[in-house]
Specification:
Elements (H helix, E strand, L loop, with lengths): L1 H13 L7 H11 L26 H15 L6 H12 L15 H10 L3 E3 L1 H5 L1 E3 L5 H4 L5 H4 L2 H15 L3 E5 H7 L8 E6 L6 E12 L15 E10 L4 E4 L4 H6 L4 E9 L1
Antiparallel strand pairs: 1-8, 2-3, 3-8, 4-5, 4-8, 5-6, 6-7
Helix pairs in contact: 1-2, 2-3, 3-4
Length: about 270
């Protein structure tokens, strides 16, 4: 009931703007989710089934839910069931729920599937043209960290096959050192994926780019300033530190530079 109430609240915001570009709608959904409590591990259950978690969320679930709600707001059928169908198509490989291994666990695969379905385009290569040598092994190598993998070698083997397949894809990123000079190419509502140097892992956190202007006048009703001011690029995310969905106090560059394990970002644009 709580999740349905959140869904209805967000759809009230989205329904009048169903003709707007996808990034605008995703951001409107995300802004309607501000202050939602942070919670991790909400999907971990046996048997595997589609779990909706709107009343509590984590970083990827927030972005995923906002994309699915924006999609639903563009459809004739805007029911909660229609939203669940869109969510399943994003979260599960080919939209089919078939045990733990059918859920998409690495953000890189989430991006590839969203691209294949015409919902998004990764623009990291267009922005910085810097290849990323990306290996995937974290889940199979650290199965003990995942309760559902720890005691199931067959499941670990299925995960390893998926990791090997993902490792054959080509990836690009914007390295830390090139971020400042490329900020103008990142748009409000882009999905920001924080790449990591951790062995065998691709992304440790995701957020939505939040553009605002530092304006000295009180002329801006929506709090994002106006173009008379200095453009800043921040981000909206489900923060484990703040324990809720927030527009972070740090700029994107400030945040990335403060993360020793982060080697750069990847940028995904919703279509």
């Amino acid at each position: 009931p709580q999740d349905k109430a959140v869904y209805e609240k967000v759809m009230e915001v989205l329904s009048p703007v169903g003709e707007e570009p996808m990034p605008v709608m995703v951001m409107k959904a995300a802004e309607a989710m501000l202050e939602t409590p942070y919670a991790s591990g909400t999907l971990e259950q046996e048997p595997e089934m589609l779990t909706v978690s709107l009343a509590r969320t984590d970083c990827i679930l927030l972005v995923e839910a906002c994309v699915a709600m924006a999609q639903t707001a563009r459809q004739q059928d805007r029911s909660f069931d229609a939203f669940c169908q869109n969510l399943r198509q994003l979260r599960y490989r080919d939209g089919r729920v078939d045990g733990y291994a059918s859920r998409i666990h690495y953000t890189s695969e989430w991006i590839l599937q969203a691209q294949a379905r015409g919902l998004a385009a990764e623009v990291s290569g267009n922005i910085a043209d810097t290849p990323l040598e990306q290996h995937f092994s974290y889940m199979s190598a650290h199965a003990d960290k995942y309760p559902l993998l720890a005691s199931d070698q067959e499941l670990v083997a299925r995960i390893a096959v998926m990791e090997e397949r993902l490792g054959r894809e080509e990836y690009f990123f914007i390295p830390k050192t090139k971020l400042e000079s490329n900020l103008d190419k990142i748009r409000h509502g882009d999905m920001i994926c924080f790449a990591t140097g951790i062995q065998g892992l691709d992304i440790t956190h995701v957020a939505l780019a939040y553009e605002y202007y530092e304006c000295e006048h009180d002329c801006c009703p929506d709090g994002r300033g106006c173009s008379n001011g200095q453009r800043q690029l921040g981000f909206l995310h489900a923060s484990s530190k703040e324990k809720k969905v927030v527009v972070d106090k740090k700029t994107l560059t400030g945040y990335v530079n403060g993360l020793p394990s982060c080697n750069g970002i990847r940028v995904v644009r919703f279509l």
